[in-house]
What does this fold into?
Amino acid sequence: WGCCPYPKAVCCDDGEHCCPQGYTCDVSAGTCDRGNTQSELTELSVGIVSCDDGSYCPTGTTCCKLSSGDWGCCPYPRSCVL
It folds into this structure.
């Protein structure tokens, strides 16, 4: 698995790339398409920050325990308020 930097991203069928919401992946062309607009596919980043519950967060983020008791990824390094 990997993490995509876009909210509500579209994951491509190759399992290695993603596109912004509303775009379609064209893996063979290496593009994200929406009408006449194209951009490059974004490579998924592999999460390597290990959380206490066994889940992972992307590099450069922090695992933080949520008020629900679940774990989430904060977009800033070393940023949890305890």
